[in-house]
Amino acid sequence: MKKYYGVIPAFYACYDEVGEIDSNRTKIFAKYLADKGVQGLYVCGSSGECIYQNVDERKKTLEAVMEAVKGKLRIIAHVACNNTKDSIELARHAESVGVDAIASIPPIYFHLPDYAIRDYWNAISNAAPHTDFVIYNIPQLAGVALSVPLLKEMLKNPNVAAVKNSSMPTMDIQVFKMHGGENFTVFNGPDEQFVAGLIIGADGGIGGTYAVMPELFLKAYACVRNGDIQTATGLQMDINRIIFKMCEAKGNLYAVMKAILKLREGLELGSVRSPLPALYPEDSKIVTESAEMITAAIKKYC
Q1: Is 299 marked active-site?
Q2: Catalytic residue among 12, 15, 136, 221, which?
């Protein structure tokens, strides 16, 4: 079996009452997900609100996660910042605490040419020479897509082990696997096409809504692997209904999902960091309805 596979939730930032990183809540959340049976955690990525955190805060989150679940799960630490220096610092730190892999989006805002992105990624990888490197392709947010020529350049780096592909065309999964080779891992990114991504060849998924309903994604993964495509596609439809319901809220999606986890599981993860909008009073109904939909789907499929 490959080193990287299965259901890997994108880990949510855990704050205290005044909006600072809370190590204890982080550990509790990490243990909760490990107990659910997920195969790994993707720490300090988009779902972890990394773009709004400084280097020390991201280190604090990763250290808490590693203390809670090191050796139990595959840990992929997203280390990208919008400058090479800070990204290198986070890469060195991630390797020092024993993660399985580091990951990076391209730098955002300026649309850099492929050779500049290559140099940026290789500089990060070189700072953690004993750790696998995962390319994070999310063109709708980064503003630049992973091209085949850039992937080929990156594959010259022996530490490049995988692509987390969050582009919407599922075809990209096959393109990246075709060029990556037999042992290369491609993760499906868009949660709404988890089943389609697996069927077309993804080894697993990394997703932002997995943590609020891990049972459903674990069941979908098992169904696909067991050849029960009919159940898997029906489950994906119900997952998507839940996602669409959560997205109806005025507040940020992560604020909604943290509220659902508090309602369903008693987990207190805090709110979200400004400028992300926190929950609005009118969102409470959506939180309740979404939680009920998750409970019903778990009862139906699990």
Answers
A1: no
A2: 136
CA 92, 96, 102, 105: dihedral to nearest 10 degrees? -30
Active site residue 5: no
Dihedral, CA of residue 257, residue 260, residue 262 and residue 266, to nearest 10: -130
Residue 1 pLDDT exceeds 80? no
Q: What is the pLDDT of residues 20-69, one digit of tens each?
A: 999 999 999 999 999 999 999 999 999 999 999 999 999 999 999 999 99
23-36 and 214-225 helices, crossing angle to 10° = 30
Selecting among 12, 42, 59, 164, the annotated active-site residue is: 164
- Average pLDDT of the chain, as a whole number: 97
Helix H, strand E, coil C: the string for the chain is CCCCCEEEEECCCCECCCCCECHHHHHHHHHHHHHHCCCEEEECCHHHCHHHCCHHHHHHHHHHHHHHHECCEEEEEECCCCCHHHHHHHHHHHHHCCCCEEEECCCCCCCCCHHHHHHHHHHHHHHCCCCEEEEEECHHHHCCCCCHHHHHHHCCCCCEEEEEECCCCCHHHHHHHHHHCCCCEEEECCHHHHHHHHHHCCCEEEECCHHHCHHHHHHHHHHHHCCCHHHHHHHHHHHHHHHHHHCCCCCCHHHHHHHHHHHHHCCCCCCCCCCCCCCCHHHHHHHHHHHHHHHHHHHHHC
pLDDT at res. 52: 97
